[in-house]
Each structure stands twice: as C-alpha cells, then as structure tokens.
Amino acid sequence: MMLESRVCSLRPVRPVITAVAALIGAVFALSTGCVSSGKYKSLEQERDALAGRNQALLDEVNAAKQKGQSLDQEKSALASEKAALEQRLAQLQEQEKALGSQLQQHEEEAKSLKSTYDGLLGSLKKELEAGQIQVQQLRDGLSVNVAQEILFASGSAALDKSGSEVLQRVAEQLKQTNYQVVVTGHTDNKPIGPGLVNRYPTNWELAGARAASVVRLFAESGLATTRLLAASLGETRPVAPNDTPEGRTKNRRIEIRLRPVVVEE
C-alpha cells in the first residue's frame, strides 16, 4: 500500500517536466525567432538597396540608349548635310569650270576682235586719214562706218570701182573670224528725187538696196552667206543734223558691224 502511494505521487511530476521543457523550447524558439527577424530585415534593406541600384543602372542604360538614338539621328542629319554639301561643291566646281570656259572663250573673242581691228586700221589707213571711214571697237564687237561718197554715186545702189576695192579690203579682214556681219544702210532726210522714186519710193528702199549690194560683194569675196545680214534704217539714225550739207553727208553711210556671234558656215 505504501508503494502504490509513492508511485501515485510521482505521476503529476512528468506533466510538469514536460511543460517546463516545452516552455524552455518555446523560449528558445522565441529567442531564435527574434534573431531571424532582424536578419530578415537586414536582408530586406540590402535587397531594397540593390533594387535601387539596379533601377539606377536601368535608368542610366535607358538614358544612354536615348542619347545613342539622339546621336544616331544627329549622325544621320550630319551625313545628309555632308551629302548636300558635297553635291553643292560638285555644282560649284561645274560652274567654275563653265565660267572658266566662258572666260577663255571671251578672251579668245577679244583677241580675235583686236586682231581684226588692228588689221582694219592697217588696211584702211588712207581712208581713215581722209575721214572717209571710221573704225570703232565696241563692247559687243566692231563697227566700220563707210561714207556713201566712196561707195555709191548719188541716188544709186550700185557700188563703184573704188568702193568695191575698199570693201574688198574690209572683207579680207572679216574673213579672219566666223562672227556675224551686219550691214546697215543709212540716208539723210531728203526725199527721193522724181527720177528715182519709181525704183526707190523712200529712203528705206534706197538704204536697203545699198546694204544688199555690200552684202553681195562680201559673199562674192568669200564670206559665208550664213554670216551676212543686210538691214535698212533709212533716215531714222542720224549722226549729225540734217540741216547742213556736211551733216547730211555724215548721215549717208554704210555701217558694217562685226558681232561676236559665232555662225556655223
């Protein structure tokens, strides 16, 4: 009986020990849980920091991409501008080349006209000294004014012998170029006389007939007919007043213009 009583008294102790052990385990677990929570927070903070750095790097990458795209656009624009400048440079070089050719052509024309001018002065020296012929260098060619008196009889459109000889010398100089030759007839303002009015109703017809006679002589002298042009201005371009005999004499003339217009022969 006493033994049973002792055994019975020990039975409540085991649950207490178990509870204590459980409590100790709980305390240990609680203690362990507190350490894990702090470490977790630390890891969370590190993760957040890494995420922030990662985002910053992504932002830098995006900015670099945008900058790269901007640089690509700028590069493309510069390439287009370079191509346009190269094209403009090529155009300017072509223009320079064309201008150089034109300049060379003008220089050759000026040299040719100067040679013809000097040749006319030399071959017409006597008539120039007598005031029967005038030779002028113009901005667009040469002009030779020949008084009517050494070419035609009064009221006539037929060249006389001395006039033909003078024009032959002029023709020899005109052969040195292939420029256009314009022959223009001029008269004074006196009406056509009764004896000639049927043939030359006005000064226009008389001046035109005289210019045609000169052109025909030039053609017979070897000048290409494609270079020759006859015109009449009648009394409309006087170089002196028509109220004196001297003035009317100056107005009755043949003007021969050598124009630097190349005509294919």
Can you put this structure into words, describing what you see?
This protein is of the alpha+beta class and 265 residues long. It has six helices and five strands; from the N terminus they run αααββαβαβαβ. The protein has a five-stranded mixed beta sheet with strand order 1-2-5-3-4. α5 (203-220) links the parallel β3 (179-186) and β4. The longest helix has 111 residues, at 13-123. The N and C termini lie far apart (165 Å).
Give structural attributes.
265 residues, alpha+beta, five-stranded mixed beta sheet, 5 strands, disordered N terminus
End-to-end span in angstroms? 165 Å
The secondary-structure element order is HHHEEHEHEHE
Low-confidence stretches: 1-10, 26-30
Largest sheet: 5 strands, mixed
Number of strands: 5
Main structural class: alpha+beta
- The overall pLDDT average reads 86
Question: What's the number of helices?
Answer: 6
What's the shape? rod-shaped
The radius of gyration computed from the alpha-carbon positions, rounded to a whole number of angstroms, is 58 Å
Q: Order of strands side by side in the largest beta sheet? A: 1-2-5-3-4
Indicate the proportion of strand residues: 5-15%
Helix proportion range: 55-70%
